[in-house]
């Protein structure tokens, strides 16, 4: 197992659209394990393969308080959504930035588990937000892109300053 480096917004690689995983082999299982370890270590509640510069449809999530409800979703797809909620979001690719984004309150997500079996997860609240946030990453979208242009400019300059300080 190993910790993976996480791309930081506005790295252009975060804009790449991930492709479907056709062969569920050991390399996918290894990547899922490494992503989970990276997410727990960060710590974060979700991580998309896009954020570790692998452009395949794979996400890991643990939105539980006890940190023992790991979900690994291969080829996740929102098949139903309704309602609305406004929740403050953050992202491991946008460190130190939190802002409110409107999302569906309730989602149904179809995916495959690591054995290739089709599964469906139904979620509300934080888990629903997290699923939408991570699936957005696979489409090349970072949560700050839901915010106003002015806020995005401010966030980019703040992150550029942070990068200079930590470099
Ligand atoms: Ni994120």
Automatic annotation (TrEMBL):
GO-annotated biological processes: translation
**Free-text cofactor note:** Binds 1 Fe(2+) ion.
Catalysed reactions, semicolon-separated: N-terminal N-formyl-L-methionyl-[peptide] + H2O = N-terminal L-methionyl-[peptide] + formate
Residues at which Fe cation binds: 91, 133, 137
Q: Which UniProt keywords apply?
A: Hydrolase, Iron, Metal-binding, Protein biosynthesis
Question: What general EC class does the enzyme of this chain belong to?
Answer: hydrolase
Record-given protein name:
Peptide deformylase
Active site located where? 134
What's the source species for this entry?
Answer: Candidatus Accumulibacter affinis
InterPro entries given in the database record:
Peptide_deformylase (IPR023635), Peptide_deformylase_sf (IPR036821)
Family to which the UniProt record says this protein belongs:
Belongs to the polypeptide deformylase family.
Q: Which GO terms describe its molecular function?
A: metal ion binding; peptide deformylase activity
Entry superkingdom:
Bacteria
Q: Does the keyword ATP-binding apply?
A: no
Q: Which cofactor does it need?
A: Fe(2+)
Q: Does the keyword Protein biosynthesis apply?
A: yes
Task: Please describe what this protein does.
Answer: Removes the formyl group from the N-terminal Met of newly synthesized proteins. Requires at least a dipeptide for an efficient rate of reaction. N-terminal L-methionine is a prerequisite for activity but the enzyme has broad specificity at other positions.
- Which NCBIfam families does this entry report, sorted A to Z? pept_deformyl (TIGR00079), PRK00150.1-3 (NF001159)
In the Enzyme Commission scheme, what number(s) does this protein have? 3.5.1.88
